[in-house]
Amino acid sequence: MQRNIFEQDHEAYRETVREFLAREIEPNYEQWESDRLIDRSAWLAAGKSGIVGLSVPEEFGGSGVADYRFRYVVAEEIARTATTSFGSGLSLQDDIAIPYIVNLGTDEQKQRWLPGMAVGELIGAIAMTEPGTGSDLQGIKTTAVRDGDEWVINGQKTFITNGIHSDIVIVVARTDPNAGSKGFSLLVVERGMPGFSRGRKLHKVGLAGQDTAELVFEDVRVPATNLLGTEGRGFVHLMENLPLERISIAVNAIAVAKAAYRWTRDYVFERKAFGKPIGDLQNTRFALAEMLTEIEVTESHIDRCVLALNADELTAVDASKGKWWASELQKRVVDRCVQLHGGYGYMMEYPIGRAYVDSRIQTIYGGTTEIMKEIIGRDIASQ
């Protein structure tokens, strides 16, 4: 089926992304996965090639691109090359950290942080999850207490994407213990602040090269000017960014599912069993037919969601629908593709093997499938 979401500018940009990945990422990726850390040089190269910081306004050194279709192109090309550890960190920067600064930051904050983020010199992270708190953000125990012109932060965070490399961390902290959901605020902690330290670089099942870490805050003194947004509206700010965060995961999910299908479609007509390509077996053809149909139907829906996001019409509920469905589809398609590869599908030198271990997290982070269904269900019940 012919897609019509992309225009000439998007396809021209695709060539830029493809050339960048071939030159800077693919030759080094295996080593970075082995090291369990994408080198910072990749971020600087991405900055020079215009692959990071697309939504940073031009006055702060970015491209000023609000059209999410360009990020969609990046996701598709990263999926095609199976370099998803790099893509995961990039998504955190472009789809979460930068939008928080752009949408909530003061002019001074934007001038201080956005130019570096736009060129890959400053890497951002957001610290929500804690050792005893996952999807239940109201259980956050990290505190920030006002002391004159500073906030004093104490607490621990875990599963933080870009946790090792991050130069600025948007920390969700409880600033009023008696205000319930209105007692949380966002504070930006910067690299080198006394009392701010990194814990373990976590050893994950997949996305090996993507740096995920524990963060520790021990009497970290943060200037009052590092308050991001409005005091006490931290939860509101988080909710405002959820449509973008969750559709970002959905976009990456459908991109990976499509890449896995294409690798497998090619492979089954090269691999022979019983004297003929396994693609000539009815079971294989049925599997391909089912996967292609599901992918195209889902892709059409995600395309609509991206256009709605561009028009500022994508709701948190619709983003939740796209997130859970596309990520579950990704998991299902990749698993079937491994099966069709046989033993070679379990080998990490094949991209389908890497996709298999990297895909499992998609139905968990950004809100689990169960949380997505609960959000949708509550909306249904309220009508």
TrEMBL record:
GO biological process: fatty acid beta-oxidation using acyl-CoA dehydrogenase
Pathway(s) per entry: Siderophore biosynthesis; mycobactin biosynthesis
InterPro entries named in the record: Acyl-CoA_dehydrogenase, Acyl-CoA_DH_CS, Acyl-CoA_Oxase/DH_mid-dom, Acyl-CoA_Oxase/DH_mid-dom_sf, AcylCo_DH-like_C, AcylCo_DH/oxidase_C, AcylCoA_DH/ox_N, AcylCoA_DH/ox_N_sf
Pfam family membership, one: Acyl-CoA_dh_M
Signal peptide: none
Domain Acyl-CoA dehydrogenase/oxidase N-terminal: 8-121
One GO CC annotation: cytoplasm
Cofactor: FAD
Residue ranges of every copy of the Acyl-CoA dehydrogenase/oxidase C-terminal domain listed in the record: 232-380
Positions of transmembrane segments: none
One GO MF term attached to the UniProt entry: acyl-CoA dehydrogenase activity
Entry keyword set: FAD, Flavoprotein, Oxidoreductase
Catalysed reactions listed for this entry: a 2,3-saturated acyl-CoA + A = a 2,3-dehydroacyl-CoA + AH2
Record-annotated Acyl-CoA oxidase/dehydrogenase middle domain positions: 125-220
Membership in a protein family: Belongs to the acyl-CoA dehydrogenase family.
Stated role: Catalyzes the dehydrogenation at the alpha-beta position of ACP-bound acyl chains. This results in the introduction of a double bond in the lipidic chain, which is further transferred to the epsilon-amino group of lysine residue in the mycobactin core by MbtK.
Annotated protein name in UniProt: Acyl-[acyl-carrier-protein] dehydrogenase MbtN
